[in-house]
Amino acid sequence: VGHAGTLDPLATGVLVVGVGQATRLMEYVQRMEKVYQAVVFLGAVSATDDAEGPITFGAQAAVPEPGQVRSALDAFVGEIAQVPPAFSAAHVDGRRAYALARRGRPAVLAPRQVRIHEIQLLGLVGPRLELQIRCGKGTYVRALARDLGRVLGCGAFLESLRRLRIGPLDLEQAIPLDTTPEEARRRLLPLGLAAGDPPALPLHPDQARRVQQGQCV
Prior knowledge:
Layout: E1 2-4, E2 12-13, E3 16-18, H1 26-31, E4 34-42, E5 44-46, E6 55-57, H2 66-74, E7 78-82, E8 91-92, E9 95-96, H3 97-102, E10 112-125, E11 128-135, H4 141-152, E12 156-166, E13 169-170, H5 181-186, H6 205-212
Parallel strand pairs: 2-12
Antiparallel strand pairs: 1-3, 4-11, 4-12, 5-6, 7-10, 8-9, 10-11, 12-13
């Protein structure tokens, strides 16, 4: 058994698990785009960039207006350079960044190129900003919340996160963690879903046999 894409401790939603031969396909699942629903708290900062860490309130500027938020969000759509959170699973000299941060020695992490396809502003009630984010591999929503707070000048952290979809795999296909083994086996999905939508070449039966034997066609 193997999984594709770790969720943060406070996060809920879709986690793709491969069983048996499907474990070989998890690398393809990890490359698929993801959709998240997030609540960002404006006007405070967190050491972990989310609600798990020590939070400092009231040290930043006033919460911005919706128009300012929309303008700031536009700057994060597309190919951007993003620095992973200090408390993250990013590797630093063969060690996880969170392991160093927990020992009081946070690492200096280099920016990574990530792609954010779309950010929808679902609501802004008081200091809470609700977003839906469609993004590519390696994007940290915590880092997006942190950087958004810096751009707005008020500080921000990720209060809650729910992963709605990975590629074609969404919440409707998901099963709860307390599902019985029998029910889980019954609801296993076809392997083809984990392969995504790669380019296809139709083959005649004799060609298919040759490919299975490692021959050229």
